[in-house]
Amino acid sequence: MARVVMLEALAFGLDRLSRISEERGIDLVLLTFDRMYYRRQLARHSHVRVVDVDTFDIDAVRRTLDDLAPVDGLISNTDTWAATAELLAGERGFTNVLRHADRLRDKVWVRNTVVDAGLSKGRATRATHWLRLPERSWSGPLIVKDAAGTGSRDVLLARSLDEAEKMIGRLAEGGIPPERVTVEPYAFGPLYSAETYTTSAGTLLFGITSRTISELPDFRELDMTYPVGRGTEWEDRVCRWVTAVLAAIGRGVGPAHVEFVDTGSGFEIVEVNSRLGGGLIGESIEMVNGISPYHLMISQALAPELGQQHVELARIEPQAAAFAQVDKHMTRPGRLGEILGIDDLAFFPGDVRWHEVIGPGTVVATTADQSANYGTVSATGITPGEALRRAHAGARHIRLVVQ
């Protein structure tokens, strides 16, 4: 029996990896410092061996891998542990694990590489350099954010040069040094993400996700709709553009979640996440496309070369034409209490469901980013718009008691 180790995982999708591993006769082992984070996924399917280890301690992870030997492959699908996985993969000869993880997570390097390739316009400047510029150009709002950040955390909007400097100082006070801060132009237009998987045969565009973002100055993601623009010339343009973006930065084999703004005069890169998209994006791809990205992840961990034959093996029966999710956020900091209205969702059309993100008793310190998201309502429909309306109709029934 082949043994595949996962170095942590996303908030959703572990149960699907579990099912596929069982079907394929694979021993799937999850290394984690917080097994309670995965409790609801493991409750749905538990063909996963969970091993408790301080995953922030690379020597501890090394020892655990030694104890688990023989290990045939490694899955890395998070931002936080990608560099650790890369180092371990190099030491042990695991195939197809993300390379150059630190560089690909650096939003300054990624953005400017894409700009240099002629695929975007707005350059980024590292805050250490930006503060030393004798004359700084100003043509509109600026984004000041952690160049290695995730989950919409530490993303700030500056409407003046003075504000930008203050925000760089504010991030420094929060433990993010100026050398890890990017200053870049704010792009006007709707936000999308391209969901892709690159194999030796090229980059496959699963589809494009749209989302609604909270009122400024916050950057919470409120809802997501998939797939938008299916079968259009616009989707073809996105496909060509995102394929070129991934080639320019050298993403290599694996999934990618590429966020961009359609400005009306071109696509503007926001960031490239060298992993599957968060939330229920993996599930939406399975349901709509009839291709399992989780199946591809396991094949990638084991196959010397991931090719078109593995894409064909990952095909499953599609279940819906369109999918949407609405995120529920706490409106004030505090301790998560009882969640009401979940039983009402059974009465709605469109397979409306509740997906817990954080459980009762969790303390939320801020409502400015995705950490305030305590759960998600999903729905399906004939069109993306119908799925979104159904998800919103159900989401308004969910109420939260904050302690």
In short:
This protein has 403 residues and is of the alpha+beta class.
What does this protein structure show overall?
With 403 residues, the protein is of the alpha+beta class. 31% of the residues lie in helices and 28% in strands. It is built from 13 helices and 19 strands. It has helices spanning 14-24, 39-44, 58-68, 82-92, 101-105, 107-116, 127-130, 161-173, 233-249, 281-289, 293-302, 308-313, 384-395; strands spanning 3-7, 27-32, 49-52, 73-75, 125-126, 142-146, 155-158, 181-185, 191-199, 202-213, 221-226, 254-262, 267-273, 322-329, 334-340, 353-356, 363-364, 373-381, 399-402. It has an 8-stranded antiparallel sheet with strand order 13-12-9-10-11-14-18-16, sandwiched between helices. Strand 9 (191-199) and strand 10 (202-213) form a beta hairpin.
Instruction: Outline the low-pLDDT stretches.
Output: none
Distance, first to last CA: 48 Å
Share of residues in strands: 25-35%
Radius of gyration: 21 Å
Structural class: alpha+beta
Please specify the SSE layout and strand pairing.
Elements: E1 3-7, H1 14-24, E2 27-32, H2 39-44, E3 49-52, H3 58-68, E4 73-75, H4 82-92, H5 101-105, H6 107-116, E5 125-126, H7 127-130, E6 142-146, E7 155-158, H8 161-173, E8 181-185, E9 191-199, E10 202-213, E11 221-226, H9 233-249, E12 254-262, E13 267-273, H10 281-289, H11 293-302, H12 308-313, E14 322-329, E15 334-340, E16 353-356, E17 363-364, E18 373-381, H13 384-395, E19 399-402
Parallel strand pairs: 1-2, 1-4, 2-3
Antiparallel strand pairs: 5-8, 6-7, 6-8, 9-10, 9-12, 10-11, 11-14, 12-13, 14-18, 15-17, 15-19, 16-18
